[in-house]
Amino acid sequence: MARIRLGMVGGGKDALIGEVHRLGARLDGQFDLVAGALSSTPEKSLESGLALGLDPGRCYGSFAEMARAEAARPDGIEAVVIVTPNHVHAAAASAFLAEGIHVICDKPLAATMEQAGMLADAVQDSAALFILTHNYTAYPMIREARAMIARGDLGPLRVVQAEYAQDWLTRDSTGKQADWRGDPARAGIGGAVGDIGTHAFNLAGFVTGLRAEALSADLQSFVPGRRVDDNGHVMLRYGGGVRGMLWFSQVAVGCGNGLRLRVFGAEAGIEWSQEEPELLWYTRFGEPRQRLTRAGPGTGPAGLSRTPSGHPEGYIEAFANLYTEAAAAIRAARAGNGRDIGLLPGLKEGLEGMQFIAACVESSAQDGRWLPLDPVTAP
């Protein structure tokens, strides 16, 4: 089976997430990276492209140039991954969608609601797929947790607790990654809430199948001079009387990448941690705690695992799962089977994330006032 020709916008030299995406895209042999606008500086884009073995003629100085040129080639890219700062997402994605090129884009959807609306229109007007990389949804044990809740293994749900704790912004940082994340013009109005809070919010909804109907937020910026939040607590009201609490922080000393989810029902509870991703803890009321393992007895789906239980898989493999499912969706679309992306996050989840960021910032500015979250529809 021929590999899908892939391009990349952003993700050049010294960009961590670009290499993570490249590793995930090639792990299962589904994609070939053949073109890129890897930096907003043409010289750096060429340097990064050559280091990756790209044809110099396909190392572009801008995403607009790349979209036009690749669409005109008989061997042009079929899909593009966008791994830029947030304020570039919408314009870059729209340029490729207009050329009929499938888009895989980092979250959040955009830096502003206006940009998000522009991107939503571009998705609506294009026959190409749009996929958002909420990569944590592709961990095997997260899929297992989702299946267990859908089966009713926990009984009626009562409480959802999610947290995402890091410490890398505990002190004022002038590094490249910290710099743009602290700039509202590039990151948007949300700091930690947009960078990692959206992951926790998305994961809670993905696993439980619940939609948050209202929230009350308390955001803080602990580091003097920081223009966006670096810590936040959010209370959530889901349908059916279910209650939720999110905590996200980038100033939690001692925490590396502490994404954690706990869900409690009337009969049982589950717990998962991204730093121990192969384990899912399941406890029925009054019974011993059970440790479920990836690819272990009674768990699945096996298609998301590459090695037997006991041979560790993790972050890169979760990205690979997302890319492999994206490849299947692209091939199905190529065969005329529509725009179904299965369990992959897309425009709807992106718009929900943007709504979440805006509501958190507004609620916090009003001393935690409860604000509604209206249902989101998307093509």
From TrEMBL:
One function term, GO molecular function aspect: nucleotide binding
Name by which UniProt lists this protein: Gfo/Idh/MocA family oxidoreductase
Signal peptide: none
Domain GFO/IDH/MocA-like oxidoreductase: 142-270
Pfam families for this protein: GFO_IDH_MocA, GFO_IDH_MocA_C3
Origin: domain of life: Bacteria
PANTHER family reported for this sequence: CONSERVED EXPRESSED OXIDOREDUCTASE (EUROFUNG) (PTHR43708), OXIDOREDUCTASE (PTHR43708:SF3)
Gfo/Idh/MocA-like oxidoreductase N-terminal domain sequence ranges: 4-130
